[in-house]
Amino acid sequence: MATDDETQLPDEVARLRQRLTQLESLDTSANEHAMLCAAEDLAQLGAFVWNASTKQATWSDGLRRILGISPDTVTSADEAICLAHADDRKRLYRLARLAVRGSEVKPTDFRVIRGDGTILHVIGHLRAVFDEAGALSALQGAIMDVTERRRLESQLLHSQKMEAIGTLAGGVAHDFNNFLQVIEGHADLIRLDPTVPRKTLISVEEISKAIERCQQLTQRLLAFGRKQDGTPTLNEVHSLVGATARMLSRVIGDDVELKLIADPHPCTIRIDPVQFEQVLVNLAVNARDAMPDGGTLEVRVDQIDLGPETSTPLSLAPGMYCRIEVRDTGVGMTESVQARVFEPFFTTKPVGTGTGLGLSTAHGIIHQAGGAIRVSSTLDVGTVFTLLFPISASEQGLARAVVDSRDYPTGNETILLVEDGEDVRSITKDQLERAGYTVLQAPNGETALDLANRHSGPIHLLITDVMMPRMSGPELAGRIQAKRPATCVVFMSGYTERLVLRRTALRSDRVSLHKPFSMQELLTCVREQLDALRQT
Ligand code: ADP
Questions:
Q1: Residue 278: CB within 6 Å of ligand 1?
Q2: Which of 94, 129, 389, 512 has a CA that sits 20 to 30 A from residue 285's CA?
């Protein structure tokens, strides 16, 4: 006969089985929860459900993580909407009203402000759930953090914009250089005429100065489009800073005062002036951004003798340095920001306004010039960037070459001149003929080949533009030299070296004449080439 215990056994087994199933399902749902959390974390996702009857919202761990809300904080739906950027809130309320009315709401971009103040870019999805009677039972939503993606997109956009401006700048600079070439050429010819009165010569000198300023403008256009490698030259720092001052005051605007303070000793450094200007402009742009309510930007220039103790931490050799301090009275930086400012792409500015390339470019340029840059900053007091450049002992090259017309090199050889720009061709021909050469001229490669075939005498030198329609300068040179191996070639170009290289596979160091060139440069180059040929 069965005891009481035995009759109770099947019940107990059934109870245990039921408990086991319960535990198993708990385990599965714990696993699923862990998986969902991991997926949210991986995809930078967050979700919420707002219950229409309890008016309570439930936030997923991912959403709390994105918004920076701790797990124990209870946040109402209204408080949560306040985490959205003020400019986006109205739109979000409108979309919620649409969803509640049963309309489909498309995914939308908006910004949220985290507890620590950082602004995130997110894509939000929202839908309403209705019960069988058609009454609203819940609102379900999900957001995806796309801040990093937006940052990369804006960087790409920026570099595409720079590329487009660079192409435009290159084109404008090319045409502009041709005009400068013609003006400079005629100015040179007037200088040669002994009957020209002194008053006219003074005017011609002014024209030349204006041309020089235009050339600097062209260089700036090209540097802006990053179509130009730096050309370091010896420069006096006070005049470099002085030349940039106008640009700086334009950059900083009216409510920031610009102060230039310089010790009286001139100091010469070796740097590309355009790149130097770029460095100061980048620093001024940052200073302006750090002083939204105005302030002072001070640029101080002096000299400093760096001993081994001061120079070693900066990786500089001991010696005399030109020190430029750029000081603002702006918001300053925390230590962690200061530690990263020279990193490429490091920016604290909102997406679309900062690229994080200003200071890294400045750093690169200064180091290329053998110098160093360092930063020191105090929150709410301001920031000082200190630039150090080795002082060049040699002062050569500073004085503008004074050209005496009697010094122009001359010759009597025959030159084939090929240039598609009529004005440039005409002035170059005049200058060559003035110097005694016989000039055959052609506007393009085909005509030049034809002329060379029909010309019975020697052609000592071919001067050709690099970029020409239909037949490029290098191709023409190859074809002429195939028939006349003794003819030497001078390439001239208005394009920057990199552009020439890219489009014609011509080595940049083979371009001897960069437009606009002076009569002195033209005739010196021609004589050098012809003399070199004679010696071989
Ligand atoms: P961007 O200006 O595009 O952000 P930069 O490389 O020029 O890139 O600057 C990097 C960061 O350094 C800035 O986002 C800013 O946080 C900080 N910074 C640079 N200059 C200053 C300054 N004068 N005052 C305060 N912060 C600055």
A1: no
A2: 389
